[in-house]
């Protein structure tokens, strides 16, 4: 009897325990289903908003003009300016006729006409106090025509593909050149870079490795697919840059227009598939995190950006200054500023070192930083002035001095850059953190030995989000116009049609000068509706100027 009673007691006490367990499991399952339903509902909402934004963007006449311009570029892209010699795509689709004769002249004219149409559309969409710009998704519409086009305005993407294959085969990309992977990958690389190892950060190389793996080792497809990370990066930039501008009390429309819809973004970051796109997007994210007082995450994000392109470290100037303000207030001392700078620098360095270790590629890029200097870049002021000096001295018979003219002026440029960036860090950054970082990026471009059109995009992106100065905006617009014209004329030269380039670029500039009051000189806006005259917004603006 006792045993039976005990068993009954144990059975009676065990039953209530089993029921809640089953109920809890069912509740947990229901909660997971509810979460999944919420995510799906949010996803549908985001897709609906995105589709509505696309339709709104398409309603803008000049957005459609930009689409037609990019379509012209895509249609005519199978030319020697964009393709490696003897590429299989030309044979496969019977496009050899595009490589010479009247068809080459025609395709060159179509590319230049398309670029001019895109530039004109962008200028016409300039936001003013009484006219908004196009929605953010306009950049998506402008990108669609060139998604499957070959890499545009540069053959760097073919080098990226070869470097990705080098990593895939377990070789050291910092000591191994593309010539070491003979075949289609090496054949597509520009001869200038065929014997040079990679100068890029470890994250860029692992990204290239992932793209090569995903494209099953097809050299041309891998080069085109390098556009996918660039597209994702521009998408991030399109989201973050207006938020950064709003956080600083600036116009979101102006930031979107100058930093996202800019023709240089479409032609070089998306079209050329450059690593710089990921770096710029991560820099914008890092600065937004710093403004929101997430200094550690901001420092780590900038470290990740430097893993794609090392110039991202200039953004640490702003992060350090913002960290000092947050800890010590606006009245901090110089020692406190240096102390917080050291903390930010240490966190970022440890983050970069950790990412480097995880990548398995090491620090070999330090030895390859001079690789881009093999190119004599006439866009770089020190190199341009040195080349003029070299010519003059050679004409005067001073051969020894002529040989040293370019290196000498490049050295002067380096000294000016170091002193200028030091001044920005020590004097300007405590008062204007993000303005100081923008200036550091600009000094690096102006004083550097090599300049490519896409090198200026970090400056334009940050300038659009931080500055409302009419003078600076005018300078940015003219810089964009000049570099777009340079890129277009470079295509004409590469295709052996300089006369076509002179005619089309010259005519476009003539029309532009006639309409410069509306297209270039108009004030940028509109200002944020919530800005008003609040002290918070005034303080945010002080950080940006």
UniProtKB/TrEMBL annotation:
Topological type in the membrane: Multi-pass membrane protein
Gene Ontology terms: cellular component: membrane
Protein's UniProt keywords contain Transferase: yes
Chain segments carrying region Disordered: 1-29
GO function terms (MF aspect): glycosyltransferase activity
Protein's recorded name: Mannosyltransferase MptB
Keywords: Glycosyltransferase, Membrane, Transferase, Transmembrane, Transmembrane helix
Composition-biased stretches (Low complexity): 14-23
Subcellular location: Membrane
Family: Belongs to the MptA/B family.
Pfam families named in the record: MptA_B_family
Transmembrane stretches, start-end: 65-83, 103-123, 135-153, 219-241, 302-324, 344-366, 408-428, 440-463, 483-510
